[in-house]
Amino acid sequence: MGGVIGGLIPFILNYHCIEAESLNDKTYIAFMCFMFAGALLSLAILHPSRVVRDDGTRCTNIKYSNVYTEAVEIVKLFLSWKLLLIVPAAWASNFLYSYQFNNVNGLMYNLRTRGLNNVFYWGAQMLGSVGIGYVLDFSFESRRKRAMVCIGIVALLGTAIWGGGLASQLNYSRHDLPKRLDFKTCGNDFAGPFVLYFSYGLLDAMCQTMVYWVIGALADDSETLSRYNGFYNGVQSAGSAVAWQVDSHKVPLLSQLIVNLSLTTVSYPLLLVLVMLAVKDDD
After folding, report:
1. So which domain of life are we looking at (predicted)?
2. 121 touches 3 (CB < 8 A)
3. Which CATH superfamily is domain 67-278 in?
């Protein structure tokens, strides 16, 4: 939802700026207002000791570990075969953003259409996460079977969507840029690339929801799961940092797409192995 609003703001405030190459000042002011409001709202979060459930019980009194213990546990994460199998999926999950945002949405569309595209990109993420979440939680009685079916669905869709991306990428490069598309004036020429960008958002949410679900099935206690999720997000951020540097050094667009396609393709069988060996059927 945050991404949808983030797409609506530049779309609405730059609607008449058809030939503009950069956002106007109103857009940045609007983003700053939203961020400031969010910071203020965070001050209203209750301390855990004041949270009372409907049945009258209170939140668990959490006993925090020390810095040394956490440092040791973090090192252990990098030696865990379970988490090493997740690394390609974690790295790929944010590595793709620079390609999709800069080199698909950024190069193929004019300013106002980029905002509109992002509304649907993040809207597709909402649909994708809910849809794949239903498969993961309610499709079969066996938890392991649900995970395996989900990985199969995501693998098929991922291959098809990135295949479509490859077909689109072959039509342009950094040295042969396409004519900027506009949602109002380009008609049928806009439809195909729009569906592709929408599908990128759908696939991203499905992949991330799937990986988070698998991580959640690897342990039962919140302390271990918090470390697992920290590891996943750390690898994600590392992949993102590298990806933006790759793009800033003008690496060919086709090469970037092939790397993204390869990373996601490798991640599917590794996740399947992880599910088969580490996910139990009992809830």
Report:
1. Eukaryota
2. yes
3. MFS general substrate transporter like domains (1.20.1250.20)
Cα–Cα distance, 114 to 106 (Å, whole number): 7
Q: List the one residue out of 6, 31, 161 whose CA is nearest residue 96.
A: 161
Dihedral of the CA atoms 104, 198, 266, 262 (nearest 10)? -20
44-48, 52-56, 215-219 — most confident range:
215-219
- Return the percentage of the chain with pLDDT > 70, whole number: 96
3-class state of residue 16 by DSSP: coil
**172 φψ region: left (φ > 0), alpha (ψ -120 to 50), beta (else):** beta
Q: How many residues does the chain have?
A: 283
pTM: 0.85
**Is the model's pLDDT at 63 over the cut of 80?**
no
CA atoms of 201 and 195, how far apart (whole Å): 10
Q: Cα 74 vs. chain centroid, distance in angstroms?
A: 24
Structural tokens at position 124: 């597709």
Residue 52 forms beta bridges with which residues?
58
**Domain residues of the chain, as ranges?**
67-278
Q: What is the pLDDT of residue 31?
A: 87
Quickly tell me which residue has 């008609």 as its tokens. Answer: 187
